[in-house]
Protein: Hypoxanthine phosphoribosyltransferase
Organism: Thermophilibacter provencensis
Amino acid sequence: METLHPDVKEVLFSEEDIRAIVSRMGKEISRDYADKNPLIVAVLRGAVVFTADLMRAISCPLSIDFMAVSSYGEAAKSSGVVRIVKDLDTKIEGRNVLIVEDILDSGLTLSYLIELLKGRGPASVEVAAFLVKDVEGNRPAIDPRYVGTHVPDEFIVGYGLDYAERYRNLPYIGILKPEVYSK
Ligand SMILES: O=P(O)(O)OC[C@H]1O[C@H](OP(=O)(O)OP(=O)(O)O)[C@H](O)[C@@H]1O
Ligand SMILES: Nc1nc2[nH]cnc2c(=O)[nH]1
Ligand SMILES: [Mg+2]
């Protein structure tokens, strides 16, 4: 068991839990994309840790590119506006694109990205989301083909997920103490 960071209220998924989830997702993706040479689109910065693990759990040929978008900035709440910070370098026309995300929360980031990438004429666009937050109320209809696991409607950190750029390096997934972000 990892030592708990003092700003973390509770660990939801340990390193061991994460390994098992990523391994299962890698097998599903390897099976579905065996002869499709997918282009993995990792969404910077949050998805970088998950992507690094996931791509090594996938056994079929693949390529990888990065997009950087941001809607949360330094806040614990989405600004409501998705900003492209870095676009792909790869032409995706005719490619099987797999967007890799750390978390689906309001759905704003993924709905924006899916529409943007579909407009470039790929053969397919699917999503692998490590976490899906169980939120009350509506969010855009996004149906990730691959889901790691679910988290409660609290602010999650670790395994790539930050608050004000901190905590991305925690090796586990945890709930941030509310007093840390409401200060
Ligand atoms: O479903 P949503 O409400 O849109 O939230 C999900 C997005 O929010 C976070 O990214 P953020 O914009 O904070 O940037 P980051 O990846 O650089 O941390 C996270 O990494 C997802 O990309
Ligand atoms: N770190 C972090 N980023 C997010 N982006 C959307 N939801 C979350 C969350 O719960 N934690
Ligand atoms: Mg992100």
Remarks:
- The mean pLDDT is 94.
- The first helix runs from residue 15 to 32.
